[in-house]
Amino acid sequence: MEDVPVVELVAKSPCAGLLPMTVGEVTLSEVDLGVLTSVAPFKGQRKAASEALKEAHGMALPAPNRATGREQARAIWFGRDMALLAGPLPDTSLTRTAALTDQSDAWACVTLAGRPAEDVLARLVPVDMRAAHFKRGHTVRTQIMHMNGSITRIGAESFLILAFRAMAATLVHDLKQAMEGVAARG
Amino acid sequence: MRVDDKGLIDRSRPVRFQFDTIGYSGFEGDTVASALLANGQRLMGRSFKYHRPRGVLTAGSEEPNALVTVGRGAAQEPNVRATVQEIHSGLDVRSQNAWPSLKTDVMSLNDLAWPFLGAGFYYKTFMWPKAFWEKLYEPVIRRAAGLGALSGRHNRDKYERAYAFCDLLIIGAGPAGLMAALVAGRAGVDVLVVDEDRVMGGRLNAETYVIDAEPGSAWAAAVVAELQGMANVRLMTRTTVTGAYDQGTYAALERVSSHLPERADGAPLETFWRIVARRAILASGALERPVAFADNDRPGIMMAGAVRAYLNRWGVAPGQRVAVFGNNDDAHRTATDLVEAGVEVAGLIDSRPGAQVTGTGFPVYTSSVVAGSTGRHGLTGIAVQGPNGHHRVEADCLAMSGGWNPTVHLTCHMNGRPTWREDIAGFVPTPGSVPGLVAAGACNGDFSTAACLAAGSAAAKAVVKDLGGKTTRVSLPDAEDKAYQIAPLWAVPGKGRAWLDFQNDVTVKDVKQAATENFRSVEHMKRYTTQGMATDQGKNSNVAALAVLADATGRAIPETGTTTFRPPYTPVSIAAMGAGAQGAGFAPQRYTTSHAVSVEMGAPMIEAGLWYRPGYFPRKGETTWRQACDREVEYVREAVGVCDVSTLGKIDIQGPDAAAFLDFVYTNTFSTLKVGRVRYGLMLREDGHVMDDGTTARLGEQHFVMTTTTAAAGNVMRHLEFVHQVLRPEFDVRFTSVTEQWAQFAVAGPRSRELLNDILDAPIDKDSWPFMACGETSVAGIAGRLFRISFSGEHAYEVALPSRYGESLFRLLVKRAESLSGGAYGMEALNVLRIEKGHITHAEIHGRTTAFDIGFARMISTKKDCIGKTMAAREGMVDPMRERLVGLKPVGPVKQLTAGAHVFERGAAAIRENDRGYVTSVAFSPTLGHSIGLAFVRGGPERLGDVMRVVDHLRDIETDVEICAPVFVDPDGGRTRG
């Protein structure tokens, strides 16, 4: 056996080399959510799919603009008739009632945390992100500057933001601009 | 000059700044206008057309005269209102529209030519010769007229956009707005108060009103302090609400840093807000209007309310001997305030015969008007015309008031028209003009302080109730409640020019001229005279102008009507509206996982939609892109090439009806496709034209992956959603984009299998992976997918792994390809390869071509329906004489082909009438050694072998070509299947 090169692949995260970053009181960090799976119940199977999800992973299918579960295993409403299961490898029982699609590598996942995180988002997102309206467990598919994304409140001062993986650099750029604008106001 | 013990400025903090390179001193709290007036500088600008010397007219954002340029270099900002710009140390302000200097302006010669420069002058004078307008007249006129200019250089100032939400938006923080905020705030409502000034209080800061036995400004400050302590109330100063839009959306411009000497890192100059409010209270106050009389535009002539504002707010007496002229009781306050402050009042002139004047210490002229003025660069005297004839009054400042116009603008932004109120001789908002918005206070015609406070309170109470809340008892403070007495006076008759629109130099005479020439509609008059069309939008002149028009046309004011108030209320820089879109913020940048490696390899990037794709990978010694491209084509034809194709859209489709769904969206059949196989599909729009094409793989009985072109990925996704949600909701099918999930690479060429077998965990062969096979694979233990498909016409595969491994896989594939005498190839080579093979892209399926045109008519299955089938079968869509796809090869001495060139018969003139088609794609084929092209030619396939002319009129190239089949390399597909 001579000269047979070993095939090796190295994984690279979407925001590698770009994050973490702190501007003022806000920190933007990349987060590994584990396995991401879109769960789209088949026709008439919403209830059954929700039960299967509860059985297998402990959370119901979220209603529109809501996220269920907790850290390590979350189901985030992801659009019409769809949730994103974030964390566990989906149980095969789910395939009976819903279309499952692996999206683990499709999204750049970041958290935005800090007291003025809402103010940062107010510069990019045309949705009322204030705690009184957008509570923990609320989620939205919306515009982030000029990108499509998903935002979920995961804490009093922290948000989970998902954007297309290929646009990770733009996501970081746009958030940085907004963070600087907020920090400059003190 | 300054008046002691007056004003809301901080005299312990002097500020130095420059105006036209001369140093001036003011105090913190001053605007450029107040500081210049304090220094006795009355001349601040030149007018637009006649270059008349002008001073400040107002003390607010409606200022038409005192426009200045702030800053120097790339960031210089023109047309800044001196009444709005706050001074700070180092502020560098320049006058505009004057040369060589403000005082000695050569273009003021225009003023002597005024008899020739009236309304309609341009239209009548510069009619001929026709070509001269664009080339001579307009450039010359534009140079002579005008305002400040941008630098023309890249401005690095940062601007910002932001969104805000509230239950109640209060626009304006004068007595009405503050009272409304207090009532709503105490009731716990989510309130946002927006005011354009640096301090809230509105007219309370400019007048000597007393509220609850304390100065009005102190009452305002106390209310603001209370509001600041409420968690449910947000206060925004230096912010102007500029527009009212659908569904409770308001635009607002915040001046964030323009008042600061030093800007923090990343701080924006301005922020453009979009505010969404469930309810809004408009408390925008009123704007005082001038009276038109001869030469009423001299520096030193200003609004009476502005004179009081400079005196009371900034402690500045705008003159040493001030005359006051008005048609209402409110103007009288000016004289009494001035006398109390120790400023000499030259006289109070009131046009009304029975005017009651209470103040003392100045001469009073009732039944009198100001009929003219003197003073070149500043007022020296006025001509008073009374019952006993003319006499001159010496004065260096005239405070005039023609009454107040409620600031109704925002209520008209959604097509509302204001209502005329005879008693105040002004327009007020028509209720319901903007859904969810009510007007309160002076903007609604309530002019006394007590009435404003009451109106603000009542409006807030109604909103609180409407929103389901409860108000606590808030008692109304005591305040003046003087009746507003006015008798309309728009223009003083007489000779000379009496200005209406100061900024655009429109006079009473111009408006009358318009009426004479039958521009009787107020909209026509506006456009003929340019009344109200300057940057101030005629805030203090529109009503007077239409009153003059009404008079000239013998109609009443309501009958004459107003012009349309449109957003923005005050000028908004485009930079603010488009904030964030400079440089990298212009559009999202979409990078493939191999991007960094491609850049490392020196590949220039080509934008494909939002994606960036490598054009080619240059090697040392290559001097042109063609050399690299030819080499890369050769890799694929002779050895093996590697190309990132992740940008193609990938849609995961699942469900019991997935196959039926595909049958419906594609022209050809997918339900018959076996699991583990791929099929090329063609998709039509509903109008029968080709929408997109691509391959779809069947991964399972109910599981497909569709591939779209890079450019149309979004469109196809939207189309599928439309088809599923609207046309065929009964289909049990689910789909989602997986474009980003997979890093996919084409491995193409005769040695492609050899390369793959070097890296795949399980080797493949001809039988296990024949042409158009697909399935699971793995590389270094990482599960992926392998498709045997080819866009190059060679034996080729596409291998896909989860994106996190994309960069690593690309490096590996390129390295292995290089060891097999191949390497990476970019978009240029990819394009050449597909043209050689006659494969279409959106250059061919550009939206106007049909399946018939591209030679794919037989791909529309006769056994089933599909989107676009019926429309594609229309007679004209299958006419053999349509422009249809063919190949081209040069046969004459000229060998060059260009895309976009048109096709003509040999011997026919290359004119539109003889057009026989056009070239869509061209390439130099290194495989064939000459240029090749794809074109749509009338009758296409029936012309094979014919020689035609291809003429590129833009590049001036003409080539004789032979019409041939569009597949140049391996027409029978032996290499692909190999």
From TrEMBL, chain B:
Record flagged with keyword Oxidoreductase: yes
Domain of life: Bacteria
GO biological process: tetrahydrofolate metabolic process
Molecular functions per Gene Ontology: sarcosine oxidase activity
Positions of the Aminomethyltransferase C-terminal domain: 884-970
SoxA A3 domain: residues covered: 495-580
Residue intervals passing through the bilayer: none
Domain GCVT N-terminal: from-to ranges: 595-864
Pfam families per record: FAD_oxidored, Fer2_4, GCV_T, GCV_T_C, SO_alpha_A3
Keyword terms of this UniProt record: Oxidoreductase
Protein name: Sarcosine oxidase subunit alpha family protein
